[in-house]
Fold Integrase zinc-binding domain-containing protein.
Amino acid sequence: MWQKDVAEYCRTCHRCQKANKSTGKRLGNMIKIQEPSRPWEIDHMDWVAGLPPGGERSYNACLVTVDRFSKTPIFLQCDEDDTAMDTALLIWNRVVRLSLCRSGNWAIYKFDCDCDT
């Protein structure tokens, strides 16, 4: 019983945790994120799911995309069970077309994912 109490105290004690060496996976090297030179050159996207149903089709999720240059957000209503094709069409029709028209950049749109956005 006493050993369990000591283990629990050490596991939850802030001072003990600060003194311990990290035993987890080592972090990678920090790299600088590229700075955009014009609007809609770099976008960040993330889903917000588990929302109460709303709208004409009872949407229950939202795809949020933010322009890194101007910090302009676009909120796109969607469903949690949308497929990759549904999401790609949503991004193409509502984000890429808008960003290409605004920026005047008609080159091929480059997608890059860091899996942390």
The chain has a mean pLDDT of 78. Strands lie at 43-54, 59-67, 73-78.
